[in-house]
Amino acid sequence: MITLKVEKENRELNQDYYDLIIRNIDIHSLECTCGRHDMVVHSYYSRSIKTESGVIKLDILRVKCKECGKTHAVLLSLIVPYQSVELEIQIQILKDEDVEKIMVNNEAIDEQEVYRIRNRFKTKYKKWMSLNKLSFLDDLVKLAFRDFKSNFMQIRKGCYNLI
Q: What pTM was estimated for this model as a whole?
């Protein structure tokens, strides 16, 4: 997977925002996990993401390395691989900011989802943040890639690049 570091910039995560970011990158220069920079468009797949305003569907770009043949999804850093809740919403839940409002605005996020997010944080990231004296104001995506080679709040291991 390739993750593009982006800021939300007071914009809602949706297909138009995703497409805008993708249009502004040179796909051929993306780095594969093999270290090469020769990607081509391979396909797209549909993915559901739980956002502040509800569940949205995104068509996610997949690229293929011409050198080694590996395929990679191209995600924005707002999307945590293998999870359905937008990163910004997960952070709001962890900070106890408007949790009730989040659940009212998006019925797909229920108490079980909130529990799983908090439990995931306690399992891996709470101690890491404490030991490194980090807060939610820090660039947790960049720091998680530095220390874990994966996005903040991501549990599943694999080979990922942050660009």
A: 0.89
